Fold:
Amino acid sequence: MTDTVLIIGAGFAGLGTAIRLKQAGITDIVILERGSQVGGTWRDNTYPGAACDIPSLMYSFSFVPNPDWSRAYSGSAEILAYIDSMVERFDLRPHIHFGANVIGLHYDDESATWTAHTEDGRDFTGRTAVMAAGPLANPDWPDIPGIDGFTGKTIHSARWDHDYDVTDKRVGVIGTGASAVQIVPELVERASSVKVFQRTPGWVLPKPNPPHPHWLNAAFRRRPAVQSAARQALFWLHEVVALGVVWDSVATTAVQGIARAHLRLTVKDKWLRRQLTPDFRIGCKRILMTSDYYPALQQNNCKLITWPMYAISPNGIRTAEGVEHELDCIVFATGFDVSKTGTPFPITGSGGRVLGEEWATGAYAYKSVNVAGFPNLFFTFGPNSGPGHNSVLVYNEAQIDYIVSAIRLMRAEGVRAIDVRKDRQDEFNRDIQRRLESTTWNSGCQSWYLTEDGFNATMYPGFATQYVRQLSRVDLEDYTVALTTSDGGYRTAAST
Ligand code: NAP
Structure:
């Protein structure tokens, strides 16, 4: 029982970890999922227009190829169907406990096991635990005065209410990030008026989205190598883009030039163009990929509001110059409450140390996967694992394979606990923070990548290739290892 692998979350990362564990012959897996369905962020983000801005051939697992993607960039329903299909294809359902909302995760030094406590009073214990809850799980409602007094409808982009019909309604959208630019074009089609409340404009690049022709999907089906080759080609194309969007360089100026030209070509009005021109380097905030947003903003029933919001009134939104914008519905496309400091629920490690306290000013880890003092605990999408230019699932696959290798190694060598060495972790993080200094993310804008103090606990400052390479092998030299002895006790590897 204690060799069980606990996985928290049944989104891409949790299911992917379970699949790779099963493929490695490890079957004592327990997946704890707070919802009643798998899919994580793709289950929750069903707003009109929800889609992925990374090509589906790369926004999927290489070990679960799907030859049937309908187009270059898929919508959320198709991505969710893909995630769902993994459950049946790899017989994962018996492992998943739905409605298991983890509210605490605790390590016991005596037994070298983790116990997850759920909101409904259940405990699940395992030798190892894998955090796969995802960073974009909890909606962020902004702290705008009067928010609770609005008498109309409020909807958060990450919890869309499909029972509410926006047809002929006066809708306000707060936010102009990756979610908002997908929602606004859809709302403009249906609502009587759409007012977009912008605090900061983002750089926008066009996103042509051709359907996959039948012959291409047939080729993928008949010759999986063709699909792998297409995936590889896209991967390397995105790696080249890193030169412009990860580091602040002449290539950044070139990419910014493309975004500026796109703005000039698609937005004719000079005033609007000025309002939509960011004052930060491209890449600093997430680049917005859309060909529909600028045209939608210029429709007769759409208006960009750039006056700061003063308050939400019972009837709408009041802006700083004293105008009240009357609305039937406010859409909060205001993003997620991402834990860059602290943890989503209390995690106590060896000796009762509290991870939330250690991460109080910013999260850090060893290679984004392990944290010293928290033996046998592994993170997916952990600190400094975010890409700015490539598919997050490429990074996720590397994390998963690293975790599965570590668990296999533990079993093969009779290891009861591995705990990453603090000196290795500190050295790793010094290097990460030094390398982050020259990136676009640290070039002076405010984004969800940074803490309020400007600490970057989110992004990986390099190519995807480098990230993957660093996780290609588990080196037990990086860890303090406790081995099980023949009498059932244990000793650290150093004393062998
Ligand atoms: P976001 O990028 O955090 O954007 C939130 C927006 O709300 C920003 O425009 C922000 O303005 C605004 N905002 C927040 N609080 C506000 C306040 N108090 N007053 C006024 N404006 C406020 O959130 P998101 O668009 O949901 O995207 C989050 C992440 O989800 C993305 O970065 C991406 O990783 C992921 N995502 C991916 C896709 C995809 O296609 N792959 C699509 C959607 C989302 P400021 O910029 O001024 O802070």
Observations:
- The chain has two domains: 5-138+337-494, 139-202+283-335.
- The chain has a mean pLDDT of 96.
